[in-house]
Each structure stands twice: as structure tokens, then as C-alpha cells.
Design brief:
By secondary structure, the protein is mainly β. It has four helices and 19 strands. It has one domain: Porin, CATH 2.40.160.
């Protein structure tokens, strides 16, 4: 059992007691307590694959509490319980000056693109069963830093016929732990310390017509240093990372049409090997349409085009991958949805294969 896993298990009683305290305080202080979870089934036709036999699986139990303490101060805490581990996914306090300036501090979702800021840890709020594979959470094999611990400033304002918005984040950069190990290799957002003196900087700008709020265009990016460590905590990577994102979105609650298109260019340069810059392209396109507020057929195509020899991607065991999926979502009742998907997966070094998945997601 690796040291990181042991530390996380030791924190279970602490975080569990803390969240239970928040639950009891919710009655006294008016906290808004909500939760999400899901039950899944997946079957793969890949011989020898993890899901060859088909399996049911419990999703994470995602609980969060939020409160507007005063007219200007708000707090939010989100905790996920999964596989016997308790993770604090978001913990933030914010000061709202006005629409043009809101400042938060804590652990937040990185402002890279649209999906990561909009769809949090409850699968019910997203149309599909899973996130695009490269935007998955760090402990699920994601390829970009989706969490950040630091300060987040944001604002929204009107400029004639347009709605404009900006986001700025400064915080701890991520690191890769257990490089080369058989398990436990993942991005770590450095929750309680920073392993180098370089802070991560993220920016996002968005524009939307005031006459069509569902239509949004975004540009975002980040600059950070991502170091990597083996199972003995010895440094094996020192990567200067630049990420650029562009997004074209048509999505809003109550609108039947959903269209999401996002591309990310991830440039990595390892200072230890001095092999130069490696640029990787990650993108997805998703579309769906809801009929009678009940049934949503949808499709998505997602792909990673990786530069061979990139030490960062190699450390995360990432390879060229493309996934085409089609699915159907049915709103069984308020706060619960059934989803079914067919996926065709092409992955370098792995036989092309199909997956069949179903999910019952719910909010409470």
C-alpha cells in the first residue's frame, strides 16, 4: 500500500467528523445541504480487460453544503466518499464585492475550459455518464490539472449587446506522484503545500450575446511547473507546462439543444531531460437534444493526439486515444436520470474494443 493511500485513509475519521458537524450545523445556520450519487454497469468486449465480465459499481457519494453568511460572504464545502476514501473536492470561502468582482480562496475547480467549471462531481448534472477521458479527475486518470488550491478572482459584466466574463487563478501547481509505480500514479494538486516555488497561473475569458445566453465562446490557459516523483519521493520530472484552451458552447438549463466543443493544447518541457518542448492536442465534441423535457439522445467524440516521448504524458501512462460514443438519457423523475451508452474505443497498444454502459444517477 503506497504512502499517499495510507495518508488519505488516516484522514477519513477527521474529514468524516468534520462533515458530520457541518450536517448538524446546517439546521442551526441554514446551510444548503445537497448530494449526488449513482449506480453503474459496464461491460467491455476487450479480452482480458477490466470489464470483460461486466460489473455493477457504486459511484461516489458526493455531498456539499453552501451558505451565504452575509450579503457579501459565502462558503462552500464538497466532499466525495468513494472506495472507502473521503476526499475534500472543493472547500472555499468567497467575498462578493459586486457582479464585476468576486474573490474566492481554497480548493476549487481549475478554470480551464467550460466542462471543468460547470460540471462538478455529481454525474446527474451532466448529460453523459462520464467526463471526457482527459478531463477526468486526477485520481481517475485525468491528464490536466482540474483542481487548484489558491485564490480565484472572477467577474461578469455587460458591454452593449454582449455579456463578458473573466476568471483569474493563482495557486499551488500540481505534481505527479508514484511515477513508474504499478499503481497510484496520478496528478496531485498539492492541497497543503507546494513542492516548488513556482505558482500556477490560470486565466479565462468568455463572451456571450445578451440575446442568446446559451451561446458562449471561451479562451483559457494556464502556466505552471509540474514536478514528478517516484515511489521513493525522488524527483524524476521537472516540467514547464503551458495549456491553451478554446471552447464553443451552446448550453443552458431549459434549452433543449446542447452543443459542447473544446480543444486543449498542452505543451510540456522537461528541464531534467532537456529534450525540448512537446505539444499535445486534446479535444472533444458533444451534442444532444432533449425532447419533451424527458429524453435526450446524445453523441460525443473525444481524442488525444500525444507527442511521442513526452515525459509528462508518459509518466501518466497516457497514449493516443479516441472514443466515439452514443447514448440516451431519460429523466425518470425530478432529480433522477437513467443513462445508457455505447462506446467504441481506439487506444494505441490496445485492441480496438467496445463498451456498453448504463447509469442511474440522482440528486438529493
Amino acid at each position: 500500500m503506497n504512502q499517499q493511500y495510507q495518508r488519505r485513509r488516516l484522514l477519513i475519521p477527521f474529514w468524516g467528523a468534520l462533515f458530520i458537524s457541518i450536517v448538524f450545523l446546517s439546521d442551526a445556520r441554514g446551510f444548503e445541504l445537497k448530494g449526488f450519487s449513482d449506480v453503474n454497469y459496464i461491460k467491455s468486449d476487450l479480452q482480458g480487460g477490466e470489464n470483460e465480465n461486466g460489473a455493477f459499481a457504486l459511484g461516489a457519494i458526493d455531498l456539499y453544503a453552501s451558505e451565504l453568511i452575509t450579503d457579501h460572504i459565502e462558503v462552500l464545502m464538497e466532499v466525495a466518499l468513494e472506495n472507502g476514501i473521503v476526499d475534500v473536492e472543493r472547500l472555499q470561502i468567497g467575498y462578493i464585492l459586486n457582479d464585476a468582482l468576486k474573490v474566492r480562496a481554497g480548493r476549487v475547480h481549475n478554470i480551464l475550459g467550460y466542462w471543468n467549471v460547470t460540471f462538478h462531481h455529481g454525474t446527474y448534472i451532466q448529460t453523459t455518464i462520464d467526463r471526457p477521458f482527459f478531463i477526468k479527475f486526477e485520481d481517475e486518470g485525468g491528464l490536466i490539472p482540474v483542481h487548484l488550491v489558491g485564490i480565484w478572482a472572477s467577474g461578469r459584466y455587460h458591454a452593449g449587446p454582449l455579456n463578458l466574463g473573466y476568471d483569474l487563478m493563482l495557486g499551488n501547481g500540481s505534481k505527479i506522484v508514484n511515477v513508474g509505480a504499478t499503481e497510484g500514479t496520478e496528478l496531485d494538486p498539492n492541497n497543503v503545500s507546494d513542492d516548488n516555488h513556482n505558482k500556477a497561473l490560470s486565466l479565462r475569458f468568455q463572451v456571450s450575446p445578451r440575446s442568446m445566453n446559451a451561446l458562449k465562446f471561451m479562451v483559457s490557459g494556464s502556466i505552471s511547473k509540474v514536478d514528478g516523483y517516484d515511489a521513493s519521493n525522488l524527483p524524476v520530472l521537472e516540467v514547464d507546462q503551458n495549456i491553451l484552451n478554446v471552447s464553443a458552447i451552446y448550453d443552458q438549463e431549459g434549452e433543449p439543444l446542447e452543443f459542447l466543443a473544446e480543444a486543449f493544447w498542452v505543451q510540456n518541457e522537461d528541464q531534467l531531460t532537456n529534450l525540448g518542448k512537446n505539444t499535445n492536442t486534446l479535444y472533444y465534441v458533444q451534442a444532444g437534444y432533449t425532447f419533451m423535457d424527458l429524453v435526450t439522445p446524445y453523441v460525443r467524440y473525444e481524442q488525444s493526439l500525444l507527442k511521442e516521448g513526452d515525459p509528462y504524458m508518459a509518466a501518466l501512462s497516457a497514449v493516443d486515444t479516441r472514443v466515439a460514443l452514443a447514448g440516451m438519457r431519460y429523466e425518470l423523475s425530478t432529480g433522477t436520470a437513467l443513462k445508457a451508452e455505447f462506446r467504441r474505443i481506439h487506444q494505441k497498444g490496445v485492441e480496438n474494443h467496445s463498451e456498453y454502459a448504463a447509469q442511474w444517477s440522482f440528486a438529493f
